[in-house]
Structure formats: C-alpha cells, structure tokens
Write a structure and sequence with these properties.
Layout: H1 3-21, H2 33-39, E1 46-50, H3 56-63, E2 67-72, H4 75-87, E3 94-98, E4 110-116, H5 126-135, E5 137-148, H6 167-173, E6 181-194, E7 200-212
Bound molecules: S-adenosylmethionine (SAM).
S-adenosylmethionine binds at residues 12, 16, 27, 32, 51, 53, 72-74, 77, 99-102, 116-120, 124.
C-alpha cells in the first residue's frame, strides 16, 4: 500500500467518524422508504447492507427475518448501530463489520445486497465497489442500489460539482455479463425529506434493483 492510499483510507475513516460524532444521531433512525418498498416483498435470507451508517436499514431487515451483515467504514456509526440493534432486540441477527470498501469487503454471498446512498467524497471508487457488491449476490438474489440523482429542493446546487449517475448509467457501469441479470426496477423518483429548517422538501433519488439469474 502506498502512503497516498494510506492517507486516503485514514481520511475516509476520520471524516466519517467525525461526521457521526457531530451529534448523537445524524440520520432519521428510520429505514429508507425505498428499502422498505423494494425489499418488503422478498423472502428473508442473508442480507448485506453496505454503508450501514447508524443501522436503521439493517435493524429493519433483521426485524423482517433476515440474517444481516451491516458494514461501514465508521467505527462510531457501527457502535451506534449495534446499540440500536440491541435495543430493538435483533442484536443476535446482525453481524457488524468495519470495512473501507476501497480496500476490503465482507466475505460470503448474499440473497440481498443493499447499497442505499453509498456516497462519499474524494476518490471514493463507488463503481468498483458496486461491481464487487454485484459479485457478492447469490444466484436468485437481489442487488438494490439507491442513490441521489441531484441536490435537495432547498439547495438544488449543493454538490453541483458532483455527477449523479442515472439508474441506466449505474447499471451499465456494473459491466454485468449479458443474460445473467434481470432489471426489476430502474427508476428515478422524488423522495420526501425534511429540510434543515424543519420544512418539508424533496430530493431526486434513483433506484436500481436487479435479480441475479445465473
Ligand atoms: C450517506 S451515508 C448513508 C448511510 C445509510 N446507508 C443511510 O441510507 O442512511 C454513507 C455511508 O457510507 C459510509 N462509507 C463512506 N465511505 C465508505 C467506505 N470507503 N467504506 C465503507 N463505508 C463507507 C459512511 O460512513 C456512511 O455511513
């Protein structure tokens, strides 16, 4: 590993730990609506939640009967998520693992791999990580990728320097072998959100849901 790579790794971990330490809770504590919508009808099996943050999605999946691996770069977030899971009575159904996906990835194969808002800064190799995520899906399993498609209604030019890929772009950059996957959902929608001043707002998000056929 070069010094440069090492610095990137430390920066990612320190950045996200510091972000989580800013307050006792930075996300809503509720599972993502889109996860509930898209995974609610699936038969529970083994799930992998990539960038599990404070654990709301992983806890929701565990409550639906899934055996979950929740994984994130931030030890602060993982500790918080484990507390949340214990309070919810599903601590024994979730395996929390710390990984910087640019460098390592959970072992095993999964019936659901979910990457909800797996966004970061700098040289974050999101496309490569999502290809690794696809490879971790068992035959018959589902890959769910949810991401922002633009800035929020109260600040549409936020992150104007960032390119938000369309669902089709996400799909084509996965470089999946033809015929091995079925596209179940590739869509953009406006997600209701609360603005920092407490007023209602929206943000365009996209969803890509694929099933592995072979
Ligand atoms: C925008 S948050 C989304 C959190 C959660 N999935 C949700 O929907 O609320 C992105 C998450 O990805 C994690 N993350 C960022 N870079 C990462 C990396 N290189 N490896 C693993 N996790 C990372 C962050 O710590 C953070 O929890």
């Amino acid at each position: 590993m070069s010094d440069h790579q090492h610095q990137d790794h430390a920066a990612g971990e320190e950045f996200w730990d510091a972000r989580y330490r800013e307050s006792d809770r930075i996300w809503s504590g509720k599972p993502n609506d889109v996860l509930v919508r898209e995974a609610g009808g699936l038969a529970p099996g083994r799930a992998l939640d990539l960038g599990s943050g404070e654990g709301a999605d992983a806890v929701w999946l565990a409550r639906q009967g899934w055996h979950v691996t929740g994984t994130d770069i931030s030890g602060v977030a993982l500790e918080r998520a484990a507390e949340h899971a214990a309070e919810a009575g599903v601590g024994d159904r979730i395996d929390w693992q710390r990984h910087d996906f640019a460098r390592s990835f959970p072992a095993g194969e999964f019936d659901l791999v979910s990457a909800c808002f797996l966004h970061s800064y700098g040289d974050f190799p999101r496309e490569r990580i999502l290809r690794t995520a696809a490879a971790a899906v068992a035959v018959g399993g589902v890959l769910l990728i949810v991401g922002h498609a633009g800035g929020p209604s109260w600040d549409p030019d936020a992150h104007a320097d960032m390119h938000f890929p369309t669902p089709r772009e996400v799909w084509s950059r996965l470089e999946l072998p033809e015929g091995d996957w079925e596209v179940l959902v590739a869509a953009e929608h406006l997600q209701a959100m609360t603005a920092p001043d407490g007023r209602p707002g929206t943000r365009p998000d996209n969803v890509l849901k694929l099933r592995r056929l072979r």
